[in-house]
């Protein structure tokens, strides 16, 4: 069984998708063993509690305190012995202090086709740029923000008259599906790094 820790900061709609399609799905050999939230009182915590999943709050930190926060994060998450750590709307930069504790096992969800529009305002920036196509990326987390190798990507068209809200609605629907698919593929051992080309992930979609 794949032991999954999910890191969240707010609403937790992606966490909910993972609960519904992975955690509570007997056909997927994976369990969410811990939810870590950066904000007390976040809706994501209610969702985890409703599913009976243990939660911990590890608060955001100023840049000067980030190393200490990340050491604590590594300790809290390490205790849950995860095979995979999923940043699903975790709104904080993490450092090597955290990432080095789980090498190659932390993945992040981002609402654009990376490397376009990294950072906190990807959806608004796609509208401002006037691009015709944006999308969703699930990628390996590295210290460079939104910078690790992509695992799954899916385009989402930007339509005439789209606002950040209408585009976000369509992007979120794709996020929920893509993230669930990614964790399911991990549970089936179908995702690996290409030894010949370490920036590239090998994803065996298996036609299923
Ligand atoms: C998602 O759009 C994710 O890509 C971004 O933050 C949002 C989180 O939404 N990093 P939710 O908390 O899962 O509803």
Structure notes:
The two termini are 19 Å apart. The protein has a single domain (2-203), classed as 3-Layer(aba) Sandwich (Rossmann fold), CATH 3.40.50.170. The chain is globular, with a radius of gyration of 16 Å. The strands form 2 sheets. The protein has a 7-stranded mixed beta sheet. α4 links the parallel β4 (84-87) and β5 (106-110). α1 (13-23) packs parallel to α6. The mean pLDDT is 96. By secondary structure, it is of the alpha/beta class. The chain has 6 helices and 9 strands. It has helices at residues 13-23, 43-50, 66-79, 96-99, 122-129, 164-187, and strands spanning 2-8, 30-37, 55-57, 84-87, 106-110, 133-140, 150-157, 191-193, 201-203. Helix content is 33%, strand content 24%. Residues 8, 10-14, 88-89, 109-111, 172, 175 line the site of 5-O-phosphono-beta-D-ribofuranosylamine.
The CATH superfamily turns out to be: Formyl transferase, N-terminal domain
Tell me roughly what share of residues is in helical segments: 25-40%
Residue windows where pLDDT falls under 50 for at least 5 positions? none
Under the CATH scheme, which architecture would be assigned?
3-Layer(aba) Sandwich
Class from helix and strand fractions: alpha/beta
Q: List all distinct small molecules, including ions and cofactors, that are bound in this structure.
A: 5-O-phosphono-beta-D-ribofuranosylamine
Number of strands: 9
What is the averaged pLDDT score?
96
């Amino acid at each position: 069984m794949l032991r999954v820790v999910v890191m969240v900061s707010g609403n937790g709609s992606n966490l909910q998708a993972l609960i519904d399609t992975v955690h509570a799905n007997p056909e997927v050999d994976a369990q969410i063993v811990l939810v870590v939230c950066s904000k007390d009182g976040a809706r994501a915590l209610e969702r985890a509690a409703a599913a009976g999943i243990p939660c911990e709050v590890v608060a955001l930190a100023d840049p000067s305190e980030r190393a200490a926060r990340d050491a604590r994060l590594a300790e809290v998450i390490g205790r849950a012995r995860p095979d995979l750590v999923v940043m699903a709307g975790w709104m904080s930069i993490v450092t090597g202090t955290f990432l080095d504790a789980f090498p190659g096992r932390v993945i992040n969800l981002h609402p654009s086709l990376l490397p376009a529009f990294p950072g906190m305002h990807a959806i608004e920036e796609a509208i401002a740029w006037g691009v015709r196509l944006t999308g969703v990326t699930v990628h390996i987390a590295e210290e460079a923000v939104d910078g690790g190798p992509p695992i799954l990507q899916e385009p989402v068209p930007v339509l005439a008259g789209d606002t950040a809200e209408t585009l976000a609605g369509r992007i979120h629907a794709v996020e929920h599906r893509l993230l669930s698919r990614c964790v399911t593929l991990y549970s089936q051992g179908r995702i690996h790094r290409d030894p010949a080309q370490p920036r590239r992930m090998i994803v065996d979609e298996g036609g299923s």
